[in-house]
Amino acid sequence: MGETIKDLEKKLEASTKSSKDYEQSIEHYQLKLAKAEHDLDTTVSRLANLEKQNTAYASEMQSLRNECEAAKKKLKATQERYFSESDRLKGIIDDMQDEEDEFVRQITEFKLSTCNKDTEISQLHAALAQATNGTAKAQNSASSVDHNEMESLRKECDAAKKKTKDTLEKYFSESQRLKAIIDEQQDIIDKAQNIKETEEKMEATRIELAQKNMQIQSLQYDLYKLQDKCDNEIRSLTKEVEWGREKLGSLKLEIRRLKEQDSEDTISIIRGQPVASKQKEDSEVGVVSNVAIYSLKAKVGKLESETQKLNEKVHQLEREKATLSLLNTEASNKVTQLTSENKALKTHRKKLMEEVQKVKGGEDKLKSDSGRRLPEVSTETLERDTSVLGVSSSTENIPAAEGKKLPERKETFQNWLSGDAAKNMFQDEPNQCANQ
């Protein structure tokens, strides 16, 4: 009897010790379960935040897509306006080129008429020289001359000298005026060349804009694919979270079952019945929960990396959008600058037309003046006089004044005149005109 009591006491101590071990293992599993629940709640909250963040990113991407569409429409309108303005400016430049050719033709005609006038002036000089020689010859043969007729001839010679001097002054003034017009024409040609260079730059800018537009379309396509991939990942993670919740519920049920089993084992130990070990099952349950949590963490990390890549793509798209806006602004500024230059060229063209009309009027006046001829001088009625000798000396000085070369200007008209032709064109020496 005493041995039976001792055996029972030993069994009771063993069962008490085993129950304490079970209680410790249950507390350990409860702590692990609480930690797993905390990790799962944290993961769920992070997933919820990621869903909110992805929703915000989706709305932001939609707004960026709308802004890109608006920028594309604005770019298309700007390109159409640029093309129309470029065509209009090209037409204006062609018209200006035709006007320049017309101006060159008029200047050539004016130079030819100037050469003819030089020839007429040379003929007048020869006539005056002959008159002077006739006067010298008639000095020995004339015996009596009417004083009134001599005075009239003297006045006629003075008038001829004055008229020749005025003609030369008009010739030189018209030559200077013509050179000023040629300088202005060269300035217009330089501006036209600058406009051509600006058009080439605008063409290069248009090509660059087209390339940027293609890049934006490619980025939009990549963004669309990333958004689909992100949506698929979100759906997959949502399913994983639901599965984790279901697994958590099953783990809670398993814990309850273990608690009930523990109480039954305690009763069995008290009764002396053998107790089945559940440590293996408990370890298997803990491993499954840890694997599920680690899998969810890996999914969350992958989603975060995808979100980071998506953010980088969004920032890159924003930078491309800013670059596109700058290019649009630059193109608009170029169009405005070309328009202002076109207005200035129109104003300058009007002034040149007025100058050409003035030159034509001066040319007609010179023609009318050169059409008049000196009256015939009777050598029999001339006598020796100091005034006549003064006329002869002044006529000798006129060719010397004509012999002075005007400063030669080197012009380069690359679009309508070669260098040799321009050099021959701007040589205004009267002797050369006489040779021609």
From TrEMBL:
Keywords: Coiled coil. Residues 1-21, 357-410, 417-436 are annotated as: Disordered. Residues 357-386 have a biased composition (Basic and acidic residues). Residues 150-215, 293-355 form a coiled coil. This is Uncharacterized protein. It comes from Desmophyllum pertusum.
